[in-house]
Amino acid sequence: MSTPPGNGCVGASILHGQAAGTQAQHAAQNGISLALANRYPAGSPLWHLFNNFYRHTVHQAECAESLQTEVTHG
After folding, report:
1. What is the DSSP letter of 41?
2. pLDDT in tens, 5-53
3. Closest by Cα among 33, 38, 29 to 65
4. What backbone phi and psi angles, to 5 degrees, belong to 52?
5. Distance (Å, rounded) from C-alpha 26 to C-alpha 11?
6. Are 38 and 50 contacting, i.e. CB atoms less than 8 angstroms apart?
7. Separation between Cα atoms, residue 14 and residue 23, nearest integer Å
8. Residue 50: its pLDDT value, please?
9. Is 53 exposed, middle or buried (0-12, 13-18, 19+ CB in 10 A)?
10. Residue 51 neighbours by CB distance under 10 Å
11. How many angstroms separate the CA atoms of 49 and 64, rounded?
């Protein structure tokens, strides 16, 4: 098996991004505030990624709750 070209930084970056997304989803699902949950350096790419994942997760939960309310209460 050959080694892929490059120095591995892209792969490491993807893994860090996936970890940030997973952490953000868990924080949002557990009701931890965004300000407390995001420990990445402010303004960094991972900080922005975390915020986006967190807000997306909250939005999905709000949509699901709204749909459930609409279905059950007509």
Report:
1. P
2. 444 455 567 788 899 999 999 999 999 999 999 999 999 999 999 999 9
3. 29
4. -65, -45
5. 23
6. yes
7. 14
8. 95
9. buried
10. 16
11. 23
Q: Is the pLDDT of residue 4 over 70?
A: no
Nearest to 28 by CA among 38, 15, 18: 38
C-alpha 8/C-alpha 68 separation (Å) is 44
Helix ranges, the chain (H): 9-29, 34-37, 45-73
The residue with tokens 């970890």 is 19
Counting other chains too, the contacts that 58-63 makes at CB distance below 8 Å and 24 or more residues apart are: 58/28, 61/28, 61/29
pTM of the entire predicted model:
0.76
CA 2 – CA 45 distance, rounded (Å): 30
